[in-house]
Design a protein that fits this description.
This protein is an alpha+beta fold and about 550 residues long. The chain has helices at about 50-65, 125-130, 155-160, 170-185, 215-225, 245, 255-270, 280-290, 305-310, 325-330, 385-400, 405-420, 425-440, 445-460, 465-485, 490-505, 510-525, 530-550; strands at about 1-5, 10-20, 20-30, 35-40, 75-85, 110, 140-150, 155, 200-205, 210. It has four domains: about 1-150, Phosphorylase Kinase, domain 1 (2-Layer Sandwich), CATH 3.30.200.20; about 155-330, Transferase(Phosphotransferase), domain 1 (Orthogonal Bundle); about 350-465, Alpha Horseshoe (Serine Threonine Protein Phosphatase 5, Tetratricopeptide repeat); about 470-555, Alpha Horseshoe (Serine Threonine Protein Phosphatase 5, Tetratricopeptide repeat). Strands 1-2-3-4-7-5 form a six-stranded antiparallel β-barrel. It has a three-stranded antiparallel sheet with strand order 8-9-10. The protein is globular and about 65 Å long.
Length: about 550
C-alpha cells in the first residue's frame, strides 16, 4: 500500500481539509513519534529561495508566541513529497504506527516526484497536495510546509452552521480567549489579518485556538511581488475585513479587532454584519454602511454586549477599542457570565442531520433518471440569516422529509451560505446529499439537479480542488446540453467555468482551447457586447498570457 511522505520525517496520514492556498494533513512525525497537523502550501506560493526565507521568518515569529490560544508551530521548511510503496513480502503497519525508516532513508520502491520543466505530474500526488495554478514547472519538486499541534474540535464557522442560537455565555467566553490570543500576538508585533470563524477553533475541552497567524501576511507579500493572484482571489476575507485593510492602507491591531467584531456579530446573529453577498458589495458596505445592532436580530443580547460589537465595527480605527486587552476587559465586565465548561455542545440540528459526509465524485452516474420537474424554485431571500435558514430547514425536514422540493432548495441555499462563509467543504457535503436525495424525486436530468451539480463543482474548486471541479463540469456538460441545449446561457457559463478550473489546475493549454472554442459561440448567441462575451475574452487573454510565460503557447 502506498504512503505519502514529506521528506523522511512526516508521513501524510489523512487529509483534513483544503483551502485556496494550502492543504492540511494529519501526519505522523517520525522524529518525535507523535501525530501533528501539517499545512502544505500550494507551490505557487513557494517557488523561490526568497519565498522560503520569508516564510521561515514568519513561521519563526509565530512559533515564538506563547499562548494557550494560539496554535503551536513545531516545525517549518521545504521538502520533497515522496510516495513509499512497500515491497513484496513486507507488512504494512497500522495507521497509528510509525514507519521504521531511518532519517533520510527511503525504501527502494519509493518514487520521488519532481516538478522540473519536462516532468509530468503524477495525478494522485497532484490531486492530494492541491498544487498551485500551473507554477509547478519552475519548482524543484519541494513544497513548503508548517507542522503544528494537532487539535480536536470544531471551528466557529462549523458551530454557527449548526443552526441554533449559540448561548450568549459561550460566545462571550470564546471571545475572551480569542482576545487573549490576539493580545499576546499584538504585543509581539504580529498581526493576523484574516480573523474569521473558519480560522478560530474550539477544542473538545473548550479552549479557543487561533489558526494561521502569519500566513496572511506572507501570502500578501508573495502574491503582490510575484504577481500570482488568480482571478477572483484576494488576501483576506471580504465579510470580515476592516475598512483600512480593504483600502490597502497601513493597519495595526485594531484591524484584527474589527474582524473580531464581525465574528461576534455572526456568533450572536448567525451572519456577519453585512451578510455574505458578492465581495464588491460587502467591501462597499464595510466602507460606507453603518452596521446594525445585533439586538435588531436577537433581542436577548444585552445592551452592553451589543454596544461593544458596534464599537468594534467602527469605520475609523481610532473610534474602536485601543487593544485586544481592552476588549477582553470589557467582555469580562459584561452582564453575561461565561460558563465554566466552554466545550462545543450538539446545538441545533447537527445530531439529527441526515446528510452524511461524502467525498466529491463525478456525478454522471447519479441513480434514477425520472420525469423532469419543471417547477420554478422559490427564490432565496438574501436577508435570511444563517440561523434562520437552518431553523427553517430543520422545520421543513421534520414536516416533509429530506427529499421534499422545498427542503432540497433550502439545503442548496444553506450550502451556498456556508461556502461564501469560508466553509466550502461543508457546502460540498450538503450538495452531495442534495444530489443523492433529489435523484429519487426530481431525477438526475432535472434542471434543479443540474443546478446543484454545478454548485458542487464550484465549491469543489473553491475548496482547493480545481482539477476535481473541472472534471465535475466535464461530466455535467453533456446532461446540460441534453436538457437546456447548446446555446443556453447556463450551458455557456458552465463551459467558461470549466476552462477556469482547468487553468487553475495548471492545464493552461486546455483552458485556452476551451475558451477559443467558446468565443465564437458566445458572440453568435449573445452579441459582441454582452457581459459574458467580455468576461470570456478577458479569461482567454489571461490564460494565453500564462502560456506565454512558460513558452508553451504553440501547444494551443
Amino acid at each position: 500500500m502506498a504512503q505519502l511522505w514529506l521528506g523522511s520525517r512526516y508521513r501524510l496520514d489523512k487529509r483534513l481539509g483544503s483551502g485556496g492556498n494550502a492543504t492540511v494533513w494529519r501526519a505522523w512525525d517520525q522524529k518525535m513519534q507523535r501525530f501533528v497537523a501539517v499545512k502544505v502550501l500550494k507551490e505557487s506560493f513557494g517557488a523561490s529561495n526568497n519565498s522560503v526565507d520569508r516564510f521561515g521568518r514568519e513561521a519563526i515569529i509565530v512559533g515564538g508566541l506563547s499562548s494557550p490560544n494560539i496554535i503551536v508551530v513545531h516545525d517549518q521548511g521545504r521538502k520533497e513529497v515522496v510516495e513509499h510503496r512497500t515491497g513484496p513480502g513486507t507488512t504494512e503497519p497500522e495507521q497509528s504506527e510509525p514507519e521504521r525508516l531511518g532519517p533520510g532513508r527511503l525504501d527502494p520502491a519509493t518514487r520521488v516526484f519532481t516538478h522540473e520543466a519536462e516532468t509530468v505530474h503524477d495525478a494522485q500526488i497532484t490531486s492530494a497536495l492541491g498544487p498551485g495554478p500551473g507554477d509547478l514547472r519552475r519548482t524543484d519538486g519541494k513544497v513548503m510546509y508548517l507542522a503544528m499541534e494537532l487539535i480536536t474540535g470544531r471551528s466557529l464557522a462549523q458551530l454557527v452552521a449548526d443552526g441554533a442560537w449559540l448561548p450568549l455565555g459561550h460566545v462571550v467566553g470564546w471571545a475572551i480567549q480569542l482576545c487573549d490570543g490576539l493580545d499576546v500576538a499584538h504585543s509581539g508585533g504580529v498581526l493576523h489579518r484574516d480573523i474569521k470563524p473558519a480560522n478560530v477553533m474550539v477544542t473538545s475541552r473548550g479552549v479557543v485556538k487561533v489558526l494561521d497567524f502569519g500566513i496572511a501576511r506572507y501570502m500578501e507579500k508573495v502574491s503582490s511581488r510575484a504577481g500570482i493572484t488568480m482571478p477572483g482571489s484576494m488576501i483576506g476575507t471580504p465579510a470580515y475585513m476592516s475598512p483600512e485593510q480593504i483600502l490597502g492602507g497601513r493597519i495595526d491591531g485594531r484591524a484584527d479587532l474589527y474582524s473580531v467584531g464581525c465574528v461576534l456579530h455572526e456568533l450572536l446573529t448567525g451572519a456577519p454584519p453585512f451578510g455574505l453577498d458578492r465581495p464588491h458589495s460587502m467591501m462597499t458596505a464595510h466602507l460606507q454602511r453603518p452596521p446594525e445592532s445585533v439586538r435588531n436580530t436577537r433581542l436577548e443580547v444585552p445592551e452592553d454586549l451589543a454596544a461593544l460589537v458596534l464599537a468594534l465595527l467602527a469605520k475609523r480605527p481610532e473610534n474602536r477599542p485601543a487593544s485586544a486587552a481592552e476588549v477582553r476587559d470589557r467582555l469580562l465586565e459584561l452582564s453575561v457570565v461565561p460558563p465554566r465548561n466552554l466545550a462545543p455542545q450538539p446545538w441545533g440540528m447537527l445530531a439529527s442531520d441526515p446528510v452524511a459526509p461524502v467525498d466529491a465524485q463525478p456525478t454522471q452516474d447519479q441513480p434514477v433518471r425520472l420525469v423532469l420537474d419543471t417547477a420554478e424554485p422559490r427564490p432565496a431571500r438574501a436577508s435570511d440569516s444563517l440561523q434562520v435558514l437552518r431553523a427553517e430547514l430543520g422545520q421543513r425536514m421534520r414536516e416533509f422529509g429530506v427529499d421534499h422540493p422545498d427542503t432540497l432548495l433550502l439545503r442548496e441555499q444553506l450550502a451556498a451560505r456556508l461556502g461564501k462563509d469560508g466553509d466550502p467543504l461543508a457546502a460540498i457535503t450538503l450538495l452531495r446529499g442534495v444530489i443523492s436525495d433529489g435523484g429519487r424525486l426530481r431525477g438526475a436530468l432535472s434542471p434543479d439537479t443540474l443546478r446543484a451539480r454545478r454548485a458542487l463543482a464550484h465549491w469543489t474548486g473553491e475548496a482547493g480542488r480545481p482539477a476535481d471541479a473541472a472534471q465535475l463540469l466535464k461530466n455535467l456538460l453533456p446532461d446540460q446540453v441534453h436538457v437546456l441545449g447548446t446555446d443556453h446561457l447556463e450551458t455557456l457559463r458552465v463551459r467558461r467555468e470549466r476552462a477556469r478550473w482547468d487553468g487553475q489546475a495548471g492545464n493552461f493549454v486546455g483552458a485556452v482551447l476551451h475558451l477559443r472554442a467558446l468565443v465564437p459561440d458566445v458572440i453568435r448567441v449573445l452579441g459582441p457586447n454582452h457581459e459574458l462575451v467580455i468576461e470570456v475574452w478577458d479569461d482567454l487573454t489571461y490564460w494565453e498570457h500564462r502560456l506565454d510565460g512558460y513558452g508553451v503557447r504553440d501547444e494551443a
